[in-house]
Specification:
This protein is α/β, with parallel strands linked by helices. The longest helix is centred in the N-terminal third of the chain and has 33 residues, at 55-87. 42% of the residues lie in helices and 23% in strands. A hairpin with a 6-residue loop joins strand 3 (30-38) and strand 4 (45-53). It has helices at 55-87, 106-121, 144-153, 164-176, 215-225, 251-264, 272-281, 293-296, 299-307, 310-319, 321-328, 330-338; strands at residues 4-5, 14-23, 30-38, 45-53, 134-138, 156-161, 183-187, 200-206, 226-239, 285-291, 342-350. It is built from 12 helices and 11 strands. It has 2 domains: 4-62, no CATH class; 69-350, 3-Layer(aba) Sandwich (Rossmann fold). The structure holds S-adenosylmethionine (SAM). S-adenosylmethionine binds at residues 72, 76, 90-92, 139-141, 144-145, 160-163, 166, 189-191, 206-208, 211-212. It comes from Vicia faba. Pfam families: Methyltransf_11. Residues 135-144 are annotated as: SAM motif I. Keywords: Methyltransferase, S-adenosyl-L-methionine, Transferase.
Length: 354
């Protein structure tokens, strides 16, 4: 099941298949364009190499993708109820002011602050003439962001998630908050979004990118569904940028990330610089990124504290094995941030008008 490289430009940090292109000969069935991000010796650029995959390899890749998606769906089906019970409707980090003392009640405010800071970073907060009228929430959880954005902008929002439990709960919460005519949720894959091209003024992905096994396809879909002039906001977990003399992370760093991947249903990670390169190759405008790791530092210690309460502990035990496994991996996130391997990144850009 060897992969034959037709064009091997440089060794890559990550390789992601984009889509099958052409049928080839009898042994080698499909020629696949592979989006490849190179970071060797700081001559970093996003390139495209051609890889030839056998039918068997394609079947294996497809099976791996399905297994990952099933794991993600089951993980969130199982754990979303207890998260909502303890933490509320937002399933993402909070944005904290460094050096400030954090009280327990501040955590939900900090999650709202994360949304506000993200909008402001993308210059969407102040000028109401720029407010989006239509939003897609890619990897929507139980829809906290969508409902916030619908209320703030008066926009119509559609959210997608792999978890049927989340989609149902998100719709129920929208109805309960009188937003059913503005906001809706469905089960759909971010890598094959069920929307026409150019539909949304704001494409919002809050902590879902880390679950995507194919980053070029993920970003490609975000760009495809964005309207001309529309804004794309990606807030996501990344690994640190590689130094000029590095070709990959250190083995201990890879090991740490692998353990986190196994517990949270994540594929290979990429760096913020790699996201930026991807967006650059797609000719997007106003590309900006920032490392917000210092602003999220109080989050995981607080999640662990809430898990160690009687309510948290018994709820986790009742939820099932996937939730227990996820809870056990939480200290690894703290370690990853503390050692600088994990970065909490925001990346924003605008699709050109034409
Ligand atoms: C950590 S939760 C974030 C939820 C939400 N954005 C929030 O901030 O509350 C990750 C979400 O990404 C979704 N997700 C992961 N992979 C996905 C995919 N391929 N397609 C659609 N949703 C996906 C999960 O179902 C889950 O809803």
């Amino acid at each position: 099941m060897a992969t034959t490289r037709v064009s091997w430009l440089l060794r890559c940090t990550h390789t992601w298949s984009i889509q099958p292109q052409t049928l080839c000969n009898r042994n080698v069935t499909t020629l696949t364009t592979t989006g490849t991000i190179f970071s060797r010796r700081r001559t970093s650029y996003v390139g495209v190499s051609m890889a030839v995959k056998t039918k068997e390899e394609e079947i294996v890749l497809e099976e791996e993708k399905k297994k990952l998606q099933l794991g993600i769906a089951e993980f969130y089906d199982e754990s979303s109820g207890i998260w909502e019970d303890i933490w509320g409707e937002h399933m993402h980090h909070g944005f904290y002011h460094p050096d400030s003392t954090v009280s327990v009640s501040d955590h939900r405010d900090a999650q709202i602050r994360m949304i506000q800071q993200s909008l402001s970073f993308a210059s969407l907060s102040e000028d109401s003439t720029k407010w989006p009228k239509s939003v897609v929430d890619v990897g929507c959880g139980i829809g906290g962001s969508s409902r916030y954005l619908a209320k703030k902008f008066g926009a119509s929002c559609v959210g997608i998630t792999l978890s049927p439990v989340q989609a149902e709960r998100a719709n129920a919460l929208a109805a309960a908050q009188g937003l059913a005519d503005k906001v809706s949720f469905q089960v759909a894959d971010a890598l094959e979004q069920p929307f026409p091209d150019g539909q949304f003024d704001l494409v919002w992905s809050m902590e879902s990118g880390e679950h995507m096994p194919n980053k070029p396809k993920f970003v490609g879909e975000l760009v495809r569904v964005a309207a001309p002039g529309g804004t794309i906001i990606i807030v996501t977990w990344c690994h640190r940028d590689l130094r000029p003399d590095e070709e990959s992370l250190q083995p201990w760093e890879e090991n740490l990330l692998k353990k986190i991947c196994d517990s949270f249903y994540l594929p290979a990670w990429c760096s913020t610089a790699e996201y930026v390169k991807l967006l650059e190759t797609m000719s997007l405008q106003d590309i900006k990124s920032a490392d917000w790791s210092p602003f999220v530092a109080p989050f995981w210690p607080a999640v662990i504290r809430s898990a160690l309460t009687w309510k948290g502990f018994t709820s986790i035990l009742r939820s099932g094995l996937k939730t227990i496994k996820g809870a056990l991996a939480m200290p690894l996130m703290i370690e990853g941030f503390r050692k600088g391997v994990i970065k909490f990144a925001i990346i924003t850009c605008r699709k050109p008008e034409n």
